Amino acid sequence: MSQNNYDALAFLKSQRPDAVLVAGQHKQIGRYNLHVNRLSLRRKLLYYWQFPIVLAGLMHSEGRPAWRFFDLIFNAIGYYEVYCRALRHYRPRAVVFANDHNDDARALLLACQAEGVPTAYIQHASVSTIFPPLAFNLNLLEGQDALDKYRQCGPIPGRVQLVGMPKADVFLAQRNTQPHVQCVAIAANLLDPTDGLTAAISYLCEIFPELTFTLRPHPGDQRDFAALRQQFPQLQFSSARQESVFEFLLRHDALVAADTSTHLEATLLNLVGIYYRFGTHAAADDYYGYVAHGLVDRATSLNELGNVLRGYQLAKPLYHYQRAAYYCATLGTPYEGKSQALVAHAVGAWLASQ
User: Fold this and answer.
1) How far is residue 273 CA from its own chain's centroid?
2) What percent of the chain has pLDDT over 90?
3) Helix (H, G, I), strand (E, B) or coil at 121
């Protein structure tokens, strides 16, 4: 479904000769666009006649929210039928997901259930308690945090195994060991307002002229940050379409961000994290619970943000990464850095039992 999903699954292709990476016809997979097989979705056009019927039914059962999200409902039409047809045509032995909540992912899951195709799920990022209940036959989660949250979402009928974060394996041996913060990463998500980002960057660049700051917009962010480049020539930029999140984080000692799973990835690499909301938006405060569970520090104002960062500029904990143990089950165990092998073994054993 995305570049992040590809990062979570690509290793399976190198470990299983029968693995095929598949994406929807127009899905943007970033720098991996040419590395995936494309599944035609043209036949969705045949099912759009259902839209008024579906919308009316949802308005009857859900009320006003159905009209508010009419565009998403329209986009979801036809996925299920197209995926059922594709499954009957290709007859895969199983389908492995890295996304459990997008409309097309849910449609493919329902199609697999209807066609009797086994399903597995490999978590690609942190989850929240408003996700759909897990409905896969095999669920490979990163850690106890994900399991606790999914239990709040509903019953889990499938098999569950905690396997750590496979996409982090090759980077854990390169953890940051700098005793002081010198380079600061700023990760922006789609909900962070431009004016809030600008205010924070202006403040940080002004009071920390000796530090290096790098802004990394979300892979799906289409905003033009040319004004920021012109206003702050010392500000560096990272393109999520050209540089993986771990490659980006390895060049930094600290992360400033709001609600993004990059906080967890940064902590695993021993970067200190500061949770700072760049503005007021609809997303719940501390969406992933990182502050509540002590993964990152919180700053509620620019002045507090500066004070927290100044403290880490003086001294950064050597074993800060241990804060992530609740989120990554293999951390501090003999399996640390071996999550890909754990997943490959779990998938192989599961397929053999089908």
Assistant:
1) 17
2) 81
3) strand
